[in-house]
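Incident review: delayed structure delivery

Summary: a single-chain prediction request sat in the queue longer than the usual turnaround. Root cause was a stuck worker, restarted by the on-call engineer. No data loss occurred. The affected request and its eventual output are reproduced below so the record is complete for anyone auditing the incident later.

Affected input:
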Amino acid sequence: MKHAKLSEILLVCSGDLRLSANQNCWTAQHEMEQKLTAEIEKFGWSVKRAHAYDSSKKHGFIDSQRMGIDIFRNIDPKQPIIVAESVWQYSHHVLAGLTTHQGPILTVANWSGQWPGLVGMLNLNGCLTKAGIPYSTLWSKDFKDDFFNQGLQEWLSTGTITYNQNHVQSFDLSIIPAADDKKGRSFASNLRERKVIMGVFDEGCMGMYNAIIPDELLHKTGFFKERLSQSALYAAMLEVTDAEAETVLNWLLKKGMTFNWGTEEEIHLTKNQTLSQCKMYIAALRIADEFSCDTIGIQYQQGLKDLTVASDLVEGLLNNEDRPPVFSKVGKELYAKQALPHFNEVDECAGLDALLTYKLWKELGMTGENTLHDIRWGEHYTGEGIDDFVWLFLISGAAPPAHFINGYAGASSDRQPAMYFRLGGGSLKGISKPGFIVWSRVYVMDNELHCDLGVGEVVALPDAETQRRWNNTTPEWPIMHAVLKGITRDQMMARHKANHIQVVYTNYEASAHEACRIKAAALDELGLKVHFCGDVKLIEKRN
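Output delivered after worker restart:
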């Protein structure tokens, strides 16, 4: 590795924009950096932080884009640099500096579910991929395992790391049954001809550069953005009556959904917060109808979070076909007996995927309710007929009740954590039911749209294990225990270009493989470069 100062590595860490989150998470970040530094020093290198702990803020994160730019102006652009993450981070805090950095870049996360460090690192990786910035990436529980140390040694020696990607097969180099290919292409051609409107309530949530599809790429697929404002959503909420909100809430209560209400607004979910979410739900559907949107995404985090409650309950309801009916001001039922696919955090890559999947699954005779999740964490589990690595997929509330054990009766709403959601609001929480899924991720690379997809299985873990996993992550959020067929933990982490993963159920295992193939053909027809990941049956490799 060529570098400006012999055997010295600079370390930066991107953090949240919200002071409370940075303060709460700083101890875990500091401990992670100490362990990481100790292991690097064993190889004869020194580690220097490129920015100091701020005693007034009580954390040492880069917490704004300007701060990141100023820090990188004082960094030798050829110096090797590590971006170390044990928390959720806003990628744009460091992206600007990394775009002009010439030295080797390594992103590192600790393998822990406590804070979303793995999620933050994957988001940064997706942003770097879209921006065309070369990087390597590593992860470890304690930075002492062979995988980490071998990768670290390779990076220290060469500036890059090679990964085992034998689980990836290009669609272009595959043969699928002609009937599957025809179904996928016919569906996609019709979809592109009809065209799709994506309602985007303020683009670019939390610096997620990877979640924005450039219009010139999106238009080729037949999808077009209707750029909407969260201020309009808030204004529309003010026009919803208390009686209309009560009607939505009563519908949910009759379905058996539980709301864990308290009395203190600052720390509890209150009935008033839930009613405000019911108003947002009605307002979102009315605006979507006004602009004839086929799918919508609400940013929420910036702007709306300072005005009103969290949008997560709203998002989960929108993603479900069986949901409280909503009517226009003149009495027309809106999107009757349909989901209005919602892409959490205005992740447009997820939005394209969600709408296509919802429509395609219905055409294939299956329920198409789907959602994104964060790839939060995972561990190997043995017992209850399982002996595999079980991923923990978790999202702040956008999962539809159709995915949960016992549906609405198995769903609850807990107050969102105060350090992220100051004004409260509830999640739509549940445990995902056992069954087979197709997973996917659309992303931008080399100025082209790509999609990775494969087959997985949602498994049931004992209640105590589910609760342990919840307690080690965010117990207020919906959870999915997933096994991804034919993919190891490290293969998945090295390959995945986003913090989000899209999931949809199928009727049984064979239909998961069939639907995966058909979806791949549809995506290919829309012009995406498609890659099968893991075990997808009845695929042959071309000679």
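Verification: The two ends are 38 Å apart (CA to CA).
Action items: add queue-age alerting; document worker restart procedure.
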